[in-house]
Design brief:
heterodimer; A: mainly alpha; Helix Hairpins; elongated; B: mainly alpha; Four Helix Bundle (Hemerythrin (Met), subunit A); 2 domains; about 70% helix; globular
Chain lengths: ~100, ~170
């Protein structure tokens, strides 16, 4: 296994995540695409941990931190989406113009 | 990529499945299919972690992501009444700028990775024992660990405060 094949896969997942963030209108689906990007970053961390073999445990600890922060992000994100839905009766992000005037 | 090695065949199959599943996540017209296909992408990355000898991270990924986060997403889909089933209003109309940005990002990231690392092998994957990870967390990374636990606590309280109904109104 080469290190580059993991990095290319991770770049592909990250780009697909970027496409999803840009193309989706619904806030829940935007959060799904953000999760895809975080998973791509995790693959990078673990692959580099195996590549630099003496720091493998440290790299995996960082992957665990990313998983934890992703869980917190989804919790807060869905709470905000729920609040927006309750106030606007819609979760489409292009209809959120309350900060504009 | 040398296809004479069994690991590379596993990698090829898993990565093709992951890319296909994540393409469904960002293009599907059905919200439930998108959320459930994220399981495919994340399960594939758990399989890659096992291939790289990161068993504990793979287990945590399955437990936290597939066990908790996907369920949270399904709750979010159901609570916010995203149209379940076919829907044509989930995407913006102008998809070509987004596709251009995504393809350019992929070209830069993948091109620089291949140009820098070439075909350097990951030499000898050793499984990292869970006890090693535990020692690393509570020895070298004990302060970040406490910070992350505080972030989780803040997110928990913030989620409750944001999502509960206001008592006055």
């Amino acid at each position: 296994m080469t290190i580059a094949q993991f990095l290319v896969l991770s770049a592909a997942l990250f780009s697909i995540g970027i496409y999803g963030v840009l193309i989706r209108r619904n806030a829940v689906l935007v959060l799904l695409a953000v999760e895809l990007m975080l998973a791509a970053v995790n693959i990078n961390f673990v692959a580099f941990g195996s590549y630099f073999a003496d720091s493998a445990a440290g790299a995996q600890v960082f992957a665990l931190f990313i998983i934890t922060v992703a869980a917190a992000e989804v919790g807060i994100g869905l709470a905000i989406v729920l609040l927006i839905f309750r106030n606007r009766a819609s979760a489409n992000i292009d209809e959120l113009d309350v900060l504009k005037w | 990529m040398d296809l004479g090695v069994a690991q590379n065949w596993f990698f090829l199959i898993i990565s093709l499945l992951m890319v296909a599943a994540s393409l469904v996540v960002v293009t599907s017209r059905n919200v439930m299919h998108a959320a459930l296909m994220l399981i495919g992408a994340l399960g594939g990355s758990a399989a890659l972690f096992i291939l790289l000898g990161a068993e504990f991270v793979a287990g945590v990924l399955v437990l936290v992501y597939i066990g908790a986060i996907i369920v949270l997403f399904l709750f979010g889909v159901m609570i916010t009444r995203v149209p379940i089933g076919q829907s044509h209003s989930l995407d913006h109309a102008n998809r070509w700028p987004a596709a251009t940005v995504a393809i350019a990002t992929f070209a830069v990231l993948a091109g620089s990775a291949v140009a820098f690392f070439g075909d350097e092998e990951i030499s000898g994957v050793n499984a990292v024992r869970t006890s090693d990870i535990g020692e690393t967390i509570f020895d070298r990374f004990v302060v970040p660990f406490e910070v992350v636990s505080f972030v989780l606590l803040a997110a928990l309280i913030g989620g409750i405060v944001l999502a509960r109904k206001d008592p006055e109104s």
